[in-house]
């Protein structure tokens, strides 16, 4: 019996790889001869780099870059030599989790460090890059990455703009002449876990700015600044992508990836499944077990368990989701191919009590599930 274990990470508790192995250990207690198929996954947000490295055997490399506030930070990236492919996770350079709560200021944070990771990949000879968007501390529309890669963003006096999205309101000149010429031969795919446009009520500033430290006044200021940036960009390039689904991902990095790097934007879970050979493993499996920290109605927007369930549904494979918690609207997941879903807690407990027990709880739930699965089979 082959069972595919393909969870996302359980935030603040386990990586996707550790979660998959915990699931497999529990299942093998119930079925010692079980052959587990391990495929850690992610949806393009934090943890996607770890999942890709675990699934593909890519080399983990490190580069000193600027964090979202311009301080030195050692950031990881992945290098898959046989495919000349770099895995670049935005959150490694410009992530929200690396900033203390009082440091979060969406007006001034920058994606400059992400551009430095691109330069490291180009120096290595990358022909393709997978850009993993999500978990950003930024709202600069990708202006930082442009600066790092050689573009000039100048104000009306011909001075370079300071870092951050708010400064884009003063953009007068956008010059792309200095962009690294190697970018012309680099194929870029960007993994997005949201479908928001750049601007407006569903845009980067309004939806994600508050969690990055933006006040209501800041949100209005940032949205207007990004709108001005989009206007200038359209004048320079001759086309306008502000309404593209996913343009608002990672504070507008989806927009920058599309218009300046000619990237293809894909749902993160689809890109991760493609890169990790998920479909081949799914074909072998008789049962699929996935999971993440929380399953709710918002998971339908492209989170890992739903991406897995939709793929499995096409092959008529049952899917069980194990989640740290089940939130409002989680039952809608049944319409997407989920067979059953369970929360991990085995009794009343706080989040702080549950987090260190996540591996233990995953093992226990999988052991019980496989015992039930075996009993139900002829």
TrEMBL record:
Keywords: Kinase, Transferase. It comes from the Bacteria. GO terms for molecular function: glycerate kinase activity. InterPro entries: Glyc_kinase_flavodox-like_fold, Glycerate_kinase, Glycerate_kinase_RE-like, Glycerate_kinase_sf. Coiled coil: none annotated. Gene3D superfamilies: Glycerate kinase, domain 1 (3.40.50.10350), Glycerate kinase, domain 2 (3.90.1510.10). Pfam families: Gly_kinase (PF02595). GO terms for biological process: organic acid phosphorylation. SUPFAM superfamilies: Glycerate kinase I. Transmembrane segments: none annotated. Belongs to the glycerate kinase type-1 family. PANTHER family: GLYCERATE KINASE. This is Glycerate kinase.
